[in-house]
Amino acid sequence: QQTKMKSVVLLVCMVFVTTAKSCLEVTTESWIFDEERDLLFQNSNIAECQKELFEHEGFMGFSFQEESSECRVYKALFPSSDPPCKDCTATTSMKFTNVPLYCVEPYTRDVDDFAFCVLLTNMCKEIKENEKMIANLEIEKEASNKKMEFIETELEKLTNVIEKHYLNDYDQDLVREIKRQHPECTDYRILNDSRRSVHHGDGTYLGAQPAKCDDSGQSNTSPDWVGAGWYRMMGPAGSRIPETPPGRRQCGTHATGWMKGSHPAVVGRTIEEVTFCFDGTGYAGQTACQYSTQGKVTHCGDYYVYYLENTPTCAIRYCATHHF
User: Fold this and answer.
1) pLDDT-derived band at 119, boundaries 50, 70, 90
2) Where are the beta strands (DSSP E) in the chain?
3) Alpha-carbon torsion 310, 315, 321, 324, what sign?
4) Are 296 and 217 in contact (CB under 8 A)?
5) Does residue 72 contact residue 38 with C-beta atoms inside 8 Å?
6) d(CA 290, CA 292)
7) What would the pLDDT profile of 96-107 be if each residue is shown by its tens digit?
8) pTM summary value
9) Count of beta carbons in the 10 Å neighbourhood of residue 65
């Protein structure tokens, strides 16, 4: 809506200035009245006061007091510390101004519709104020986002400190409780084939042996793969599945398996929906997540376990690393 309103006013201003290019600005300023230089009209109204201003060449503003029906037209706008009138409650002051917004310059005094001129000026002014408000809100939003990022970073640090405290002190009671609540932390299969390492790569498994895949029943199924289930990565392969694409033709396979997302930071937590991608970059038209499977990951204390499905094709398989 803001953008639409801005466009409408821009169009109105552009059309308006082809016939009338000067506008008045409603203001709270007051100016020094000089009887020899300026003009005073009695028994007037605001429309007549505006008209007097436009009809007298070289005059710059006016003030109109409703209670006394007094109109003052100023040739020069010298600021005054006094209000436009004394002991009055309803005074309107306006002045010629070059509105630095969507109305086109230069400005002339050939204005026919005084009310439209004032409306146009105030609309442009309101849009400018709204733009400033939006800019301030964007600044506040950016500051808030940075603050939230800082809080999340500090929370992650605190979580890691707590986690390391438990692990470094070998809190066996905590570990036993986690394993009791998560049977997969003890009932798992092991993937420890050294050629699963992200550092093993030439597109083959060993010498002339073909690249392996984690799909049961294939002629080139990985020697440590026994079908879908819970697995733990162990040496010499590595201790976890990498969180970034290893690149193609590593890990004794062609498309290399990695975990899209982060491992759980809290001990005992399970992420129920995890996407495991297989990196095919380097092959024509393939991406870092050319193939994928869905699984899970649980933080068991000093290691992770993963629920892994059979890979959708060969030759692709899950990789292992010692670092994220």
Assistant:
1) low
2) 23-27, 39-41, 61-65, 70-74, 91-97, 189-191, 229-233, 255-260, 270-279, 291-299, 304-308, 316-318
3) negative
4) no
5) yes
6) 7
7) 765 443 443 333
8) 0.48
9) 23
